[in-house]
């Protein structure tokens, strides 16, 4: 009898857990109205705690005229986030980021008394790998929103939320990103990468799982078990985008180099992805801002872009030539104006920044946004299946005709660090 009771108790616990993971997490932010069944009212003073598992985070709240954060404790997986936005009495403008500054919604506008329902998909990841291993994180990653146990949404100061619904979804095509500081979700202003901007250009149907990290090579990505992690969760029909080169070129061992270890490891990434029934895509490294005396970008990456192109050709893998596209972009902007796409800021632009920032490798939000448009155009040009999930009305993007810097709008997140990310 004891064994039977224990079995029934365990079974009940299993079904309770399964139900909890598939039921939507629903919140309303409007007091004074009849509470809809299944929704939890979020009062202005609802502060996040581990015990409660939801609430305003990082010492912020809505209605203060400043950006604010809202978090919900959730396990690894893909989540459909649905927001009802707008206000009875005033116009609103909403931009939304998720986790470590991933841009999800941009400039969603409502008139007084009008409301908009908008949805997007967010991927949450953890360190655990099947078999008991874990991803080897860098110290700076240990406190990143991308690696904690909750979904954090960041709203700009003019956002007014009516309701929030978060639903676990298992039917999304997941696009895994592997790479370095030009791909990673940079947590701190003013740094940014194309990997954190690209979700904005896609509707539900796909989720972006960004496993890139600053300073990594193909070898250190492997060594920190990040490819193992991706291979433990990737499924048939998913994608792996692979962009390395900036840091690989610093490896000077006997068996290193563009045509040796770099080529061999690229092929390994391709082969492992295909074993899982997933689709590899090779992305050549973004060019550095390295203008020559002729006013043209000089190649600072040696044979690495050429090696990536050859692997793509040999292995019959889709290629997005971001090296070529970014070169066109910088040259179109011009030598001096192209600084507006990078982390170039005079001293005292940010608190505690007593020296100018002059970084010709890492992008600011504008530069990252333009590069994300390059990737989207590369997806279209390669006729990848995921192109059907690109938001409607997005025109062809020609990097030789970039968007005007003056027209780009970005609400800054609270964390601001003037320490350059690993890698150069």
Which labels suit this protein?
Jelly Rolls, five-stranded antiparallel β-sheet, 2 domains, five-stranded mixed β-sheet, alpha/beta, 424 residues, Rossmann fold, disordered N terminus
Question: In terms of topology, how is this protein built?
Answer:
Blueprint (H helix, E strand, L loop, with lengths): L1 H21 L2 E4 L11 E2 L12 E4 L10 E6 L3 E10 L5 E7 L3 E9 L4 E10 L3 E2 L3 E2 L15 E6 L5 E9 L3 E7 L14 H4 L8 E5 L7 H6 L2 H8 L5 E5 L14 H18 L3 E5 L20 H12 L2 E3 L1 H12 L8 E4 L11 E7 L1 H17 L43
Helix pairs in contact: 5-6, 7-8
Short summary of the structure?
With 424 residues, the chain is α/β, with parallel strands linked by helices.
Description:
By secondary structure, the protein is an alpha/beta fold. The chain folds into two domains: 24-169, Jelly Rolls (Sandwich), CATH 2.60.120; 172-424, 3-Layer(aba) Sandwich (Rossmann fold). The protein has helices spanning 2-22, 194-197, 218-223, 226-233, 258-275, 304-315, 322-333, 365-381; strands spanning 25-28, 40-41, 54-57, 68-73, 77-86, 92-98, 102-110, 115-124, 128-129, 133-134, 150-155, 161-169, 173-179, 206-210, 239-243, 279-283, 318-320, 342-345, 357-363. Strand 6 (92-98) and strand 7 form a beta hairpin. The chain is globular and about 70 Å long. The model is unreliable at 1-22 (pLDDT under 50).
